[in-house]
Amino acid sequence: MTNRKKQANLLRLFRKAHRKTGAFLFIFFFIISITSLLLGWKKNSNGTILPKTEIGVSSDLKDWMKIDTLQTIAFNTLKKSIDGNIKLDLNRIDIRPEKGVAKFNFDNDYWEVQLDGTTGKVLAISKRHSDLIENIHDGSILDILFGTDSDILKLIYTTIMGTALLIFTITGFWLWYGPKKMRKENR
Question: What end-to-end distance do the CA atoms of the chain give, in Å?
């Protein structure tokens, strides 16, 4: 088989892989692209995607209440403000000393309670839409929906999508470069 025929066969193979993979994974690439855009803009969304961080009284941690006291305030606030029966699954505590704020982020429906670290005053109760968007983007939402504890579905999803993106990059490059190379060799 001549070199030109080998290149043409490789080009056909890449075109076929590119087309079939693209058709199969179109919806996933669409979701990833939209969530990427939203996550890129989260800090510039005027609090729509990611709640604005409020400002507390003091940035000096010596003036702050104990974290367990702040946590109790956050838990009570969420129960009183949202639902008395809400599960209090704390995802993380985000301490922002420079702003005088402690953010308590919950797994349940992506709630956030921001407290003044010094006074314990509730500064904001907000939804963290960015956390939901991130879970959709990286596939964690699958483990949440199916109740898996090991992140196995996220790992499968990211492996498939990462591999697919790699295949698209390689085949897309060859679909662009291959014909140029063949024309150049034909001269």
Answer: 20
Neighbours of 78 (CB within 10 A): 24
- CA atoms within 13 A of residue 185's CA, in its CB half-sphere: 12
- DSSP E strands in 43-107: the ranges are 90-96, 101-106
Distances, alpha carbon 172 to alpha carbons 11, 13, 146, 152, 167, in Å: 10, 12, 35, 30, 8
Q: What is the pLDDT of residues 65-88, one digit of tens each?
A: 999 999 999 999 999 999 999 989
Contact at 8 Å (CB) between 35 and 133? yes
The one-character DSSP state at 136 is H
Give residue 3's pLDDT: 80
